[in-house]
Amino acid sequence: RMDDDDDIPQLSSHTLAALQEFYLEQQQREGMKTSQGFNQYSIGSIEEDWQLSQFWYSDETASCLANEAVVAAGKGGRIACVSAPSVYQKLKEQDGKDFSVCILEYDRRFSVYGEEFIFYDYNYPLNLPENLLPHSFDIVIADPPYLSEECLKKTAETIKYLTKGKILLCTGAIMEEQAAKHLGVKICKFIPKHSRNLANEFRCYVNYASGLN
Fold this sequence. Notes:
Layout: H1 13-34, H2 59-73, E1 77-82, H3 85-93, E2 99-105, E3 117-119, E4 137-142, H4 149-162, E5 163-172, H5 176-183, E6 186-187, E7 202-206
Parallel strand pairs: 1-2, 1-4, 2-3, 4-5
Antiparallel strand pairs: 5-7, 6-7
Main location: cytoplasm
Catalytic activity: L-lysyl-[protein] + 3 S-adenosyl-L-methionine = N(6),N(6),N(6)-trimethyl-L-lysyl-[protein] + 3 S-adenosyl-L-homocysteine + 3 H(+)
GO biological process, one term: methylation
């Protein structure tokens, strides 16, 4: 019998070392998540999924938007995050503060957040649980997954259903006219940043006197 080993491609020691390092990092990451429930709400606990057009904000931007939402919602306020999980995660880090929050999200990995998670598909903007009453949120933060008028228009239906009035929308700069048309929101001076740079310029839009100007 011939020696089959010759046909098996051997990984260079350099590649092997890199692979081992990668697996080690993955294990440490997993380990960090499980050890003493290591901040289960931190951004890294659920990695962004580009196939779902997910792009996390930078830590600074997520914190800034979360803080703005808390101030805008007021004492005992209710905040809805529509397709904006990195802001939701920042809000969860402020545990014990006087507000409540829901996340409406297509990505079912977020169901780990229990009752606060509501499965949401913008194609069916009003397909929402019965206990989600109309105009029951002091502020809605939304980041529609796609830069298209159709996506914005449908997400806008959801936002208008949920909010008592205040809206904080994050989307591309090119959507300024549509944002005004469908939600009556105006562009802010604040420039949101993402943890990975996006090709499209991103902006925030509000319909109230916010701290983002």
